[in-house]
Amino acid sequence: MNDATRTASQAARVLPFPAFPKPAPRMVLWDAPGRPQEEAVRGRLTEAGYQAVKWTSEPATGYPPHVHIYPELLWLISGSLTVILPAEGRLLELTPGDRIEIPQGLAHGTMAGADGATYLLATK
User: Pick from 47, 46, 44, 28: which is nearest to 96 by CA?
Assistant: First the structure.
C-alpha cells in the first residue's frame, strides 16, 4: 500500500464529530405589575423544584466569567445585574423581576449596577 492509498484509507475511517446543541441562556422579562416580592418569587421557585438562596452584590461588584456543572437560575429582586456572556459577545441587563436561566457549561459572569443587586440564585 503506497502513502496516498494509506492516507485515503485512514481518512475514510475518520468519523465526524457529532453535532451538539449549543447551550443558550433563556431570559424572561418581568411583565407583572409592580415589583417582585421575594417570598412570592421564592414560592414559585420552590413549586418548580428549585432550591434558592438570596444573594446580594454590592454596587459595581461581580464575578468574572466562569462555568458550572449544573444549570442555574438568577431571579433579580432589586437593583440591576448585568450578565456577561463572553462566548456570545453579549451583555444582558436584568432589572427587578427579570430572570435568566443559564445552562450548565455556559461561561457567564455578572456585574451589579450602581445600586447593587439582590437576587435569588436557584438550582435543582
Answer: 28
Predicted confidence (pLDDT) per residue in 100-122, tens digit: 999 999 999 999 999 999 999 99
Q: What is the DSSP letter of 49?
A: T
The DSSP annotation for 86-98 comes to TTTTEEEEE-TT-
Q: Report pLDDT digits (tens) over 36-56.
A: 999 999 999 999 999 999 999
Q: Which class would CATH give 23-123?
A: mainly beta
- Report whether 22 contacts 87 (CB < 8 A): no
H or E element: which one contains 41? helix 38-47
In whole angstroms, how far apart are CA 76 and each of 100, 107, 119? 9, 19, 4
